Amino acid sequence: MLERCTTAQEHWGGVDRLVDRWLADRKELVEHYIALRDRTAPDTSVRQQLNLFCSALLDYVSAGHFSIYEQLVRGAEEAGDERALELMSRVMPRIETITQFAVIFNDYYGAKTKRQLKEEVMQSRLLKMGGLLDERFELEDCLIEVLHTANKDSQHITETVE
């Protein structure tokens, strides 16, 4: 998962500052996920690692829904790219389902919960969250690629006409 994030940053880095920041947030989210899953930060309690992960998780999914996806749609509309808009309409329901799971995960395990932590159950849910995040990243990368191609094609057409 971390390798995919690094690859996405290398591939799409510099395309757009907002997307760059979002990809950096993605990498941070994955690092918190791995630290929690593998307990790679022994000086940090499970509860602290869980809070860091949940905070990064909410920040990431919120950025997607409240700015990134909106920008991707706007870019596709400006480019007149029906293919990108159609792809977004197909993948957004799945991304929204994954977001709902992330919000539920945060509500259950985030900083404001007073629940007793059951390690085995949390690990099982964390692994499911990891799989869903991996799927989400793949869908988001497809959206970024389609939009980037549309913008590049529209810039090329504009440059050719001028």
Characterise this structure:
There is one protein chain. With 162 residues, the protein is an all-alpha fold. The protein has a single domain (2-161), classed as Regulator of RNA polymerase sigma(70) subunit, domain 4 (Four Helix Bundle (Hemerythrin (Met), subunit A), Up-down Bundle). It has helices at residues 2-12, 17-38, 46-79, 82-109, 119-161. Helix 1 (2-12) packs antiparallel against helix 2, helix 1 runs parallel beside helix 5 (119-161) and helix 3 (46-79) packs parallel to helix 5 (119-161). The longest helix is centred in the C-terminal third of the chain and has 43 residues, at 119-161. It is elongated, with a radius of gyration of 18 Å. 27% of the residues are buried.
Q: Roughly what is the average pLDDT, rounded to an integer?
A: 82
CATH topology: Four Helix Bundle (Hemerythrin (Met), subunit A)
Shape: elongated
What is the share of helical residues?
over 70%
- Number of separate structural domains: 1
Q: In DSSP terms, counting alpha (H) and pi (I) runs of 4 or more, how many helices?
A: 5
Largest sheet: none
CATH class: Mainly Alpha
- Give the SSE order as H and E letters: HHHHH
CATH superfamily: Regulator of RNA polymerase sigma(70) subunit, domain 4
Structural class: mainly alpha
Strand and helix map with partners:
Layout: H1 2-12, H2 17-38, H3 46-79, H4 82-109, H5 119-161
Helix pairs in contact: 1-2, 1-5, 2-3, 3-4, 3-5, 4-5
List its salient traits:
mainly alpha; disordered C terminus; Four Helix Bundle (Hemerythrin (Met), subunit A)
Briefly, what is this?
The chain has helices at residues 2-12, 17-38, 46-79, 82-109, 119-161. With 162 residues, it is mostly helical.
